[in-house]
Amino acid sequence: MSAPASARVETASLAGMALGISAYSLFAVHDAMIKAVITALPAPQILFVRCIVIIALCLAIGRKGVVVDLWRSKNRMLILGRGLMTLAAWVMYYSAGRDLQLAEMTTLYYVAPVLTTVLAVVFLKEQLTLARVGGAAIGFFGIVVAANPRGFTIGWPVLMVLGAALFWAVAMILMRTISKSDRTLVQVFAQNLIQIVVMGAVCLPFWQDMGPREIVLCIAAGLVGGIGQFTLVEAARAVPASVLGTVEYGALMWSFVFGYLFWGEMPATTVYVGAFLVVAAGLTLALSEHRNRREIIDAP
Fold first, then answer.
1. Burial of residue 61, with CB atoms counted within 10 A of its CB: 0-12 exposed, 13-18 middle, 19 or more buried
2. At what angle do helices 130-147 and 102-109 cross, to 10 degrees?
């Protein structure tokens, strides 16, 4: 006998979870590019150039239709709120990159999936399963073990990353809500349009010269970041926010790989232990969601 529809937990498709992992993996590449230039350029200027690239891509694909759809959207205030929340998160996060290692930033920032899970219950009325709660808890514990952050001291860089995590969690909830009615390209265009206006006002009066290396990295970050944003919104259509937050842990290892390749940060044994916990949490959650989804589909 099947449960009534109102009692069923909204399940996540494996394809949606795969999209989420792909999106966060792209963001890891994007973050490494930003960190490579953050000591040479202020964060607002980097984000301004990146947003120009993404807006150009959106207009090339959607042409005037993306502008018309944004103007007609009933979610303009939510879109504005999400854009500002995301902007605040990125500025705080990348500014902290001047003083923190990539692994340290990642560990602190990954409080965001836990916050997203809590906010999804409060504001989206999503129902939590044991697998979702366990996946979030084990994944976060695995990240702490992997980064082994014994040397953390509370200061402005740490507080900025924690603040970024909170803003990102709120932005995720807004994105999930907006995705139910506005198409993906409109969301990506709107978010970057908001950010380019704010960042332009901040950075243009204090513009710093950019060399070929900085230009190439900022453009590349725009291309990778734009694809990542599009993929993430598509994932939000298929995956509940409480699950998508946990999926975010899947991109953890890229931070350590890039930290080793580009900044000589040698992985310790704890990295492998933490990686095992993160992978185990992700696989457990994926199997649970897949099983629940099949049970609902097969129910008469």
1. middle
2. 160
Rg (CA), the chain: 19
Give 263's Cβ-side CA count (13 Å radius).
Answer: 17
The 10s digit of each residue's pLDDT in 159-213 is 888 888 889 888 888 888 888 889 999 999 999 999 899 999 989 988 999 999 9
pLDDT of the residue at 283? 66
Give the tokens for residue 108. 């602190």
- The DSSP-derived string for 138-157 is HHHHHHHHHH--TT---SHH
Q: Position of tokens 């509940």?
A: 240
Q: Is the pLDDT confidence value at 7 over 60?
A: no
Nearest-angstrom CA–CA distance, 14 and 238: 9
Tokens of 59: 């207009």
Q: Do residues 249 and 278 make contact, with C-beta atoms less than 8 angstroms apart?
A: yes
Give 150's contacts (C-beta < 8 A, 6+ positions apart).
none
Retrieve residue 145's tokens.
């073990």
Residue type, 295: E
- The amino acid at residue 139 is G
DSSP per residue over 211-256, as a string?
-HHHHHHHHHHHHHHHHHHHHHHHHHHHS-HHHHHHHGGGGHHHHH
Apex 215 CA angle, 214 and 219, nearest 5: 115
* Alpha helices (H) along the chain: 14-37, 43-72, 76-96, 102-109, 112-123, 130-147, 156-178, 184-203, 212-238, 241-247, 252-263, 269-298
